[in-house]
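User: structure tokens for this one?
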Amino acid sequence: MLELRDVETPSPGPNEVLIKVAAAGVNRADLMQRQGHYKPPPGVSSILGLEVSGTVASVGERVSNWAIDDACVALIAGGGYAEYVAAPSGQVVPPPLGVELLAAAGVIEVAATVYSNIELIGLADRDLFLVHGGAGGIGSFAIQYAKTLGATVIATAGSEDKLNYCRSIGADHAISYRDDWPAAVRGIAVDGVHMILDNMGAKYLADHVQLLATEGALVIIGMQGGRSATLDLLALMGRRGLVTSNSLRARTVEEKTAICRGLVQDVWPLIADDTIKQPPLTVFPFAKAAAAHARLESGENIGKIILSVTR
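Assistant:
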């Protein structure tokens, strides 16, 4: 259950910024935490929420680069579904130029996830890139960012409207996961896929290994399809493939600070000039967080779900 209640306003530490929250992004990690499957790291608030937008309310004694009322977005490990949240100053950045605070609440977590993993693998011009859930927050950003690097993008989705949306934002190929999507991918990627960004986990593991190109990489960022499966090591070795997994939430403050710095330098300009377009928004008031979760769980949403303090 999700309940709206009063809690004590957090106080920023010496290297933290206290943010008056305007809006918070809703992510699948929030659903998992609500269900008891994804505990926050030690010392982190048990309140849900991994990304917020808002204005600076106060700063810690060692913070010199932020002033009261500055607009900002923050990548956080928890606490975002609240009127105030404290965040390490390195994980607080200005919103992309031209993006209003409501929309900005849904930018940083998906951007950080996609950017950090694509940087890790080194996706390059003419590589083949596969992402599932192309009409969601992660998928819609991944399609567009991979295209800026010159990759050929294959996206999956579950309805014709979603497939059309994937094509409209740059997907070279859009495939229904309700059909034989592995066969469709093989028909496109005759020599295999160079990078797969995988939110499904166990359910697709065997197919993904078979779809990898020589020295291709499978990057697992979610477990919507389960957490345990059998890995065919011979098939993986035959491709000299890489299987890796990643949790942005568990990274250190230093690592997240470096990622946020990279976003401002490399990604925010692409959003500002509309190279990467903002997805459709579905907005709920904070008091309707349960309805927001139900919407995300339904699989019907296109784009990003946002909780707004003012609506």
